[in-house]
Amino acid sequence: MASLTHAHAAPHSVAEPHGGSAVQRKLVIGLIAFLTVVDLFATQAILPSLARAYGVMPAAMGLAVNASTVGMALAGLAVAFFSRRIDRRTGIVASLALLAIPTSLLALAPDLATFTALRIAQGLCMAAAFTLTLAYLGERCSMADAAGALAAYVTGNVASNLFGRLLSAAVADHLGLAANFYVFALLNLSGAALVWFWIGRTPSMMAPSHRPASPLATWAEHLRNAPLRRAFAIGFLILFAFIGTFTFVNFVLTREPLSVSPMALGFVYFVFLPSIFTTPLAGRAVARFGTRPTFWYALGVAGAGLPLLLTPSLPVVLAGLTLVGVGTFFAQAAATGFIGRAATTDRGSASGLYLASYFFGGLVGTALLGQLFDRLGWAACVAGVGLALAVAAWLAGGLKVAAPVKGS
Question: What are the start-end ranges of the H helices in 290-346?
Fold first, then answer.
């Protein structure tokens, strides 16, 4: 295989970095994913500290922190609309470089409104890079390499949830909230540099023999595709449930009777460690058992963790969080792969629509479940998460598969 810096020499394969091995290639892909979305959930590890700093209720701070999902949803739609016109490498590098600006400005945000606006700006940059990278992998991978490349990317996403939160909690605890955001701005610039040196330029597209469909016509074709519609809705519900759990559990963990300290709160997110090893298996599970059983298994595992979150025992709560993490990340990996197989045209556009739906789910989950948490308590919030998982499982029943071996 060609190197990533010479990817145009092999338009249907993911190139290996500087002639490296397949393992090296996957490590680079995973690291790019890590540096792309590390800002997204890392801030959740310092939610109680931020709420105290701005003097607001948990729901208000949770909505401000997760406002990044607004930007991510809008950027997903924009990339879906302009997908064919954007050079993948240039777009990814620019997005990650620009991401450092709102990240560093968060250290100086004087009020919650400014903080929220900067989080939205972060989301715009993160989602543009995320969507363009998925499109790049889908277009530059052979069918044999696609599953491994996408699994590596999703695994990097999982790792960012763990190590990003650990880093955020540690830096904020030892150096303060402002230093936390400066550190993450440096990570953003590191991601831009990595992409610049390791990903090759997108080859010039051959002039089509017929006039391509307009972006809106392509969207319409995606939305007429019933399995894709269900997958979009499942993505919405996956992040709805994930954010509902991992945003507001921070406040539960720091209160009586669990009383976890701010520094120890970061270590709580070792619950994501098993997901780093289970998520790459999603592609194999789909190939062996089919799409619907894989979704049911993943969502069932997540649902099994919910009752454990209501106990007063920290080890039991951590076990519940582990199950929710394993199940939702597994479902997300299965959904990401399904989009590429189910789309009948322009995978970049389909990925953009999926991610827009996914991140809108995070925003709605924050708003609705935050109100349940503030007004009715943690048990009501967990019940809302359970309802979302149940609806997602019902929707998965409509993902028709022609042959399990293809995972369609």
Answer: 291-305, 314-342
Q: In angstroms, rounded to a whole number, what is the distance separating the alpha carbons of residues 298 and 175?
A: 38
Range 312-326 average pLDDT: 94
Please state, in angstroms and rounded to a whole number, the distance separating the CA atoms of residues 14 and 397.
Answer: 33
The 3-state DSSP class for residue 313 equals: coil
Residue 286: how many other CB atoms lie within 10 Å: 26
Q: How far apart are CA 314 and CA 249, in angstroms?
A: 12
Most confident of 24-28, 121-125, 279-283, 333-337: 121-125
pLDDT value, residue 120: 93
Beta carbons within 10 angstroms of residue 204's beta carbon: 8
pLDDT above 70 covers a percentage of the chain that reads 80
d(CA 292, CA 270): 29
Q: Which of 267, 278, 393, 388 is nearest to 326 (CA)?
A: 278
Higher pLDDT, 209 or 142: 142
The pair of three-digit structure tokens given for residue 141, joined into one six-digit string: 């991978």
Q: Which residues pair with 16 in a beta bridge?
A: 3
> Do 333 and 286 touch, CB atoms closer than 8 A?
no
Rounded CA separation 170/154 (Å) = 24
% of the chain with per-residue pLDDT over 90: 28
pTM of structure: 0.73
User: Is the Cα torsion angle 308, 309, 312, 315 positive or negative in sign?
Assistant: positive
Encode pLDDT of 218-240 as tens digits: 767 777 777 888 888 999 999 99
The answer to whether the Cα torsion of 221, 131, 365, 307 is positive or negative is positive
Name the burial class of residue 117, with classes exposed (0-12), middle (13-18) and buried (19+) by CB atoms within 10 angstroms of its CB: middle
Tokens 């499942």 sit on residue = 234
Two tokens at 92?
Answer: 């990814």
At position 8, the amino acid (one-letter code) is H
Kindly report which listed range (17-26, 348-357, 395-404) carries the lowest average pLDDT score.
Answer: 17-26
Q: What is the average pLDDT value for the chain, to the nearest integer?
A: 80
Buried b (16+ CB within 10 A) or exposed e, 221-233: bbeebebbbbbbb
CA distance 123 to 74: 9
HEC profile of 150-185:
HHHHHHHHHHHHHHHHHHHHHHHHHHCHHHHHHHHH
